[in-house]
Amino acid sequence: MDTTATTDPVVVITGAGGGLGAATATLYASHGWRVVAVDLTAPPGGAGITPLAADVTDSVSLEEVADRVREEFGRLDAVITFAGVLGIGPLGETDPDRVQHVLDVNVMGTVRTVHALFDLLRASGGRVVLISSETGPQHGMPMNGAYAMSKHAIEAYGDALRRELMFLGLDVVIIQPGPFRTGMTASIRRRFQESTLPGSPFAAMAAVMGEMAAGEDDKATDPAVLAQAVWTAGTTPRPRHRYAVRWDLGRRLLDHLPVTVVDKALTLALGGRINAKKLELRREAAEARAEMSEVAE
Questions:
Q1: Nearest CA to 175 among 215, 220, 231, 126?
Q2: How far apart are CA 264 and CA 21, in angstroms?
Q3: What is the mean pLDDT of residues 207-232?
Q4: I want to staple 246 with a disulfide (CB 3.0 to 4.6 A). Which of 2, 178, 200, 222 is the partner?
Q5: CB 131 within 8 A of CB 14
Q6: How large is the average pLDDT for residues 131-141?
Q7: What spatial distance separates the first Cα and last Cα of the chain, rounded to whole Å?
Q8: pLDDT grade for 183, boundaries at 50, 70 and 90
Q9: 289: CB partners within 8 A, 6+ apart
Q10: What is the pLDDT of residue 225?
């Protein structure tokens, strides 16, 4: 161990380059923690924050983070896994490589991070805080399959990890955020529009779901609220297994109903809007063809 090892608590936060991860990094630093802020591009530094560039899909990259923590601080008291990507689009036509990428970042990126830092965590009796989603324990919804798959996996991983590490005296906590204002939610409409193939039978559904998702940004919560929940999860002496933070009430209620009832409700709620959007898209396409024809003449 480095002779200059700090006596201050140390936390590694992945996905700390912006949004929720950055807010959490700032909060921990303000409480006197030494924060190692990790993202694909090194985040901005600051008082108490050491920025590092690393890729959670690359084990070697994460081992280098572990080496840096070991050499510079000599301890690790918590790891918080914010690194993640959205997975939007119809599963029937989404390239499997895109689905694989979502799983590689969201699931295996979390696994690689904890694995790389495990010896440091064990030596310090540290804590693992896993960032899931309200989607994690809920039934999957249309156009959100890849992301839901990844967060369901995080829930299972967190339970298994907790039940292993509790025998070593280490805590594992799962955070399940609802909608928060981030760069990902701000670009959600565009992401839905780009998620289907030309001539896709899912184009109208993607447009409707994108409009609905974009509307959620209006009621999304400030990232500081989630940062405070992650602070509690990472520092309270007896943490809960899970912290549900500002879930969408409608989704919560739906998930308590029988699956057949929810499917029927979705058909009634979305069917008319999707059919109307199909007519709108056809009309727009016909108008575009007519304009091109006039130009050609």
A1: 231
A2: 37
A3: 87
A4: 178
A5: no
A6: 94
A7: 78
A8: low
A9: none
A10: 94
